[in-house]
Amino acid sequence: MSNYIGLIRKEAGSDYGVSFPDFPGVVTAGSTLDEARQMAEEALAFHVEGMAEDGEAVPEPSSLEGVMSDPANRDGVAILVSLKTQAAKAVRINVTLPEDVLQRIDTFAEASGLSRSGFLARAARHEMERNTAV
Questions:
Q1: Domain 2-132 belongs in CATH node 3.40.50.300
Q2: Which of 16, 52, 81, 92 has the fewest C-beta atoms lying within 10 Å of its C-beta?
Q3: pLDDT of the chain, 134 residues: tens digit per residue
């Protein structure tokens, strides 16, 4: 299990936003602090899964001192976000989707800081968890 630094920021009238200095572009948010922490763990896990699928190396966690020495990070509150498991081996599949659905998936995934595969895995897990809870 690795712990990465997440930076929480909140402006008046907005949700709690979380970014990851070790993973530029990965952001998430929650309406409460607890939700933001939970979403941070999910976003980090899905991003790392996408990196593994793409054959990219996962960076070593930066130190708190290193993160906070960057002036751009000083307005955030640092939290530790656990990457509880290493990404499972990715398996390439071929899926056919309507073009308009694929465009919406790509737009949503990019805005969420996820890869297409990461988003689809997240959506599938969400749907399976939702249906097993019923």
A1: no
A2: 92
A3: 789 999 999 989 999 999 999 999 999 999 999 999 999 999 999 898 888 777 778 888 999 999 999 999 999 999 999 987 555 566 778 999 999 999 999 999 888 777 788 788 888 878 888 887 65
For every residue of 27-75, DSSP letters joined together read EEEESSHHHHHHHHHHHHHHHHHHHHHTTPPPPPPPPHHHHHTSGGGTT
CA-CA distance, 83 to 80, in Å (whole number)? 10
* 83, 22 Cβ separation under 8 angstroms: no
Measured between its terminal Cα atoms, the distance across the chain in Å is: 31
Residue 23: name the closest of 61, 80, 78, 79 by CA.
61
Domain ranges of the chain: 2-132
Total-model pTM: 0.63
Report the distance separating Cα 8 and Cα 28, nearest Å.
Answer: 10
- Burial category of 79 from C-beta neighbours within 10 Å (exposed 0-12, middle 13-18, buried 19 and up): middle
